[in-house]
UniProtKB/TrEMBL annotation:
<protein>
    <submittedName>
        <fullName>Ion channel</fullName>
    </submittedName>
</protein>
<dbReference type="InterPro" id="IPR013099">
    <property type="entry name" value="K_chnl_dom"/>
</dbReference>
<feature type="transmembrane region" description="Helical">
    <location>
        <begin position="47"/>
        <end position="69"/>
    </location>
</feature>
<feature type="transmembrane region" description="Helical">
    <location>
        <begin position="21"/>
        <end position="41"/>
    </location>
</feature>
<feature type="transmembrane region" description="Helical">
    <location>
        <begin position="124"/>
        <end position="144"/>
    </location>
</feature>
<keyword id="KW-0472">Membrane</keyword>
<dbReference type="Pfam" id="PF07885">
    <property type="entry name" value="Ion_trans_2"/>
</dbReference>
<keyword id="KW-0812">Transmembrane</keyword>
<feature type="transmembrane region" description="Helical">
    <location>
        <begin position="156"/>
        <end position="176"/>
    </location>
</feature>
<feature type="domain" description="Potassium channel">
    <location>
        <begin position="93"/>
        <end position="177"/>
    </location>
</feature>
<feature type="transmembrane region" description="Helical">
    <location>
        <begin position="81"/>
        <end position="104"/>
    </location>
</feature>
<keyword id="KW-1133">Transmembrane helix</keyword>
């Protein structure tokens, strides 16, 4: 009987999480992919990088909203550490991958927006991997200095990611006393 109720609770949690993540993930993925497609058109205009920054603000809003609403709900309803860890894992992946696309797009629009060892004619996988690495290092606040934003839009993008990382982690730590570990 207890096993059956824990299975339904398990399904209920993932169903609720999926419904909440669907809108945010759709917005983030759509914006990220639109950047790459837009940048591949080779249109050069000084304001294009600021459009990407503006769209990154929109993504940041959706991620902050998801963090605040969903984490509050999960902590308020289930108090399970595993549920909170799953939400944090999804949020971290969403943030790191979406900012990787942002950095990559800024770089392919203007190779001088970042100081890096990359050359402008490298493969997509190599370049994207470099910015995935940069995003993860930025999220963790390590900052080795091997990739450095040079342009104003690149610096704003880094500031947004650092803000999100602090927000997600501080919000989680502030609510840690409400989380219970099941034995």
């Amino acid at each position: 009987m207890q096993k059956k109720s824990s299975i339904s609770e398990f399904k209920g949690f993932y169903k609720q999480l999926f419904k909440k993540l669907l809108l945010t993930t759709t917005v983030v993925v759509t914006l990220s992919l639109s950047y790459v497609l837009f940048a591949s058109l080779n249109v050069t205009h000084p304001f294009l990088s600021y459009i990407i920054v503006f769209l990154a603000f929109i993504k940041t809003f959706f991620i902050v909203r998801l963090t605040f609403i969903q984490l509050s709900k999960i902590i308020g309803e289930s108090h399970k550490l595993s549920h909170v860890l799953i939400l944090f894992g999804v949020l971290i992946l969403l943030i790191v991958f979406s900012f990787s696309f942002d950095y990559y797009t800024l770089y392919i629009m203007d190779v001088d927006s970042f100081k890096t060892s990359l050359t402008g004619n490298g493969s997509f996988i190599r370049q994207f991997f470099e910015f995935l690495y940069f995003s993860l290092i930025t999220f963790s606040s390590v900052g080795f200095g091997d990739i450095v934003p040079i342009s104003v839009s690149g610096k704003i993008m880094v500031m947004l990611e650092v803000f999100l990382s602090f927000f997600v982690l501080v919000f989680g730590i502030a609510n840690i006393n409400r989380i219970h570990v099941d034995k």
